[in-house]
Fold these 3 entries.
Entry 1:
Amino acid sequence: MRDGRVVGEGFHTYDGLRHAEIIALEAAGKNARGATLYVNLEPCCHTGRTGPCTRALISGGVRRVVAAMPDPNPAVSGRGFKELRAAGIPVDCSCTSGSSEEARRLNEAFAWWVRRHRPLVTLKTGMTLDGSLVLPKSPNGHQSRWITSEISRAEVQRMRHASDAIMTGIGTILADDPLLTDRTGLPRRRPILRVVLDSLLRLSPKAQVVRSAQGDVLVFTCASLSGVRAKQLSARGLEICRVRPRRGRPDLAAVLDELGRREILSVLLEAGPLLNQAALQADLVEKVRLFYAPVLVGLGGSLPGLPSRKRAGSLPIRELSHLRTEAFGRDFAVEGYLRDVYRNR
């Protein structure tokens, strides 16, 4: 910003290996000198996948920097600000402002990954008011596929667009045959990764997720990679990854470790009650978002992590923090956190 007008702006691009500050400087050109930079995260001061943005800002003659929040990486937090100030560039970082809270939400997946080297997991599900994940069949035998409204489903697509990966279990694939794609039509920094947990490799080559695969489907299994089904799926462009078993199923901690190694920052868990329960029991969910439809079906008791009331005692009671509710047409969503993603615990 210079003389009250925007002279350049930029957004981080994954493949381009350039941070937003560099793109904005290039867009501003000569007008960057004497301008104020507004950025949602402290400019980096080290060389990693990219060079240090602080040096580029100093060289470009930026007069002032306003940042919404410091870098969540404890190894570098504050160092970028220190380098800018040492060069005579004032830095304003008001960590109590509304923009800071918005920036924290925007950067929460990166904050979690940079501290824990695992993706931030958000459990999403839709249900009736009495806790059912499925609707009963009508008298003619027809069963509706959707519990929530079209408006809610559009919001789920927005959640997919904001995620690096969608993860589900083979049970959901066999029951619903979903595509698991981002259908917003908005540009992405890289294709969304579709992750399927399939302990025995029951995934059919006819499944939509297989037929639509373009190097964006990763299957975790406990089965042999030399079997016929593994070879069939590999030939169709799927990547099959064998991980250690835990109670006969792919170990979720090992799965998330591998996704973190691949720099997957965020995972949207869209699964059935068994996988939801396993993730909650293993304490591997950071955030939940539950969409409720104003419907009662008399089948209550299927909470997002529980197949039935009989299993309720197997999960500890945990209170959500930073609760938010939001209406989506006739539906409403409840969102909350199971842990502070900015604290290394």
Entry 2:
Amino acid sequence: MSKADIGLIGLAVMGENLVLNMESHGFTVAVFNRTTEKVDDFINGRGAGKSIVGTHSIQELCASLESPRRVMIMVKAGAVVDHVIESLLPFLEEGDIVIDGGNSHFPDSIRRTRELEEKGLLFIGTGVSGGEEGALLGPSIMPGGNPAAWPHVKSIFQAISAKTDEGEPCCDWVGRGGAGHFVKMVHNGIEYGDMQMICETYQMMKEGLGMSNDEMHDAFTRWNEGVLDSYLVEITRDILGYRDDDGEATLDYILDTAGQKGTGKWTGIAALNAGQPLTAIGEAVFARCLSALKDERVEAAKVLAGPDTTFDGDRAAMINDLEQALYASKIMSYAQGYQLMRAVSEEEDWGLDFGAVALMWRGGCIIRSRFLGNIRDAFEKNPELTNLLMDEFFEAAVRKAQAAWRRVVSAATQLGIPMPAIGSALAYYDGYRSGRLPANLLQAQRDYFGAHTYERTDKPRGEFFHTNWTGRGGTTASSTYNV
């Protein structure tokens, strides 16, 4: 009997659909699940009559694979992945490939790459984005790990990945160690930001402008045909138009408390560790945390007063302003995400290709959008681009949107409607374009109470000074360092 091209462990939603995707592209797939009844149900159900081999043990799975063995793990991130890898080791040989396709934290992928290399095995930690539909029809795939493994999986991954309109696969090698899962983590952080900004826009429309779901549906339909053309705007349009069997808007009956699985938080922590201003994405994470305090918010709403005012301006003009404000804010979120990727890529010596990352996100993934093509163009034109805002396309787009963006944030503030992500994105823009910030006062404060020293505008960079602000502190200064 001929052996399978690849094995997959974990027949949950993503695992099942990836198997069907691989099989539809001509690959024979062996499958295993800890609860073996799932294997039988899958083989006799969605996988019936297909080139899928059901196995009932790790040993049987490994024995069914062509050499070098390729085993893809689709289980919950964390200790479970390590447990599955440990269970595979007795049945693998030198040169075999272990692939973690879950949402693992990138430091874990750095460690697993090293540990498996020491055992003569090749590891890939790959981000897979696109949800259930993407897994079945073509996801964005972001593989990293041991580069020696890439030639053995390239044909499979690029065959099953999403394709751009030009037919390019939304999958390419990202980099060594944890690079693949790091890029997927940043993708998810940007996803958090996009979703929160859309939600803030929805709240302004609903509460500030008094728009009905149908009116908002029409606005998002129009927006999805312009600069905001993207998957998340598209599904927001569909959600606003969806009705229960009794004709009621399903959205209006969903409890306003959001969940999260941790990748947005990881992105924020990575930004803090790297000293990068990921403010819009950070606010999106905190907005989910605030939404989870539902009972507290209900009680606070009975006590805490807001402005007693209503919107009395031109509603149609404000809807157009909201489109521009959302567009400009999204650009900030991507700019911050790319700043973080550049900083960590330099720290880890990954050499990330930022244009290639934009291509991988161009189709299949949750944040796919029209302007990812513009991001790719920006980095192809200037691979050393320090910030997307310094590219002429994005500089012009934000310059055009700026007045509308400010009107939206101002109106929301006057109406008492929270816009933490959109407002933070604007504050980041104003901070980034400021040649001088008030950090001189901050450094003076640090030097006053902690003798932390400061640099001077009239002296070369790298020279540090201390002032005896009170006359009682003496000349001793603290050592200068940054965390």
Entry 3:
Amino acid sequence: MVSTDKAVNPSNVIGCSKRICEIYIQSLAKSIEGAPERNTQFITTRFGNVLGSNGSVIPLFREQIKHGGPVTVTHPEIIRYFMTIPEACQLVLEAGAMGKGGEIYIFDMGKPVKILDLAKRMIRLSGSKNIKIEFTGLRHGEKLYEELLSKAEHTKPTHHEKIMIANVREYEYQHISKMVDHLIRLSYEYDDMRTVKKMKEIVPEFRSINSPFEAVDTLLDKIEI
């Protein structure tokens, strides 16, 4: 399962969705551990943005520069981790080959890149003149920076210097499968607030940022009190 750094302390629905996937896959792997009929290893890889992939900023910036701008950046201080498509593919295959089942592999992505610097560099390399950069503001649930590990998590090394194993909280498959089944049933009701509330119950560290779903956090806080 290919996850994302957005799964760590998620602040939006996609990040929480990926964290739920991680939990489900890991608990499924642990539930069949040692079973004689087991012939599948379920593992997860967690990493950041892939340069040039669908939805990444580089194709967007390229198109914006081609049409004379402006190049849109959400915030002047926003940073992200990046890797190339070949690098991501190689590390996913390596993790798959070394996996025994139930691991969440984290890739060393080096230093994060400031998106504003990336935009300036692409404008300069294009040779275009008078291309303006426009700041559009952070989108719903968007962080200034992403994390590959939460504060409560630690890693173990592998024989590959760029691949580590995350030590994360583990869940019982029977428990989590019931919660996921409930979440799926809720999704068919098309009630965003109820669906997100259930997601936050599964992943308590999911805290919304700049989003209507902050109201759910307030409600859950009152219940806990």
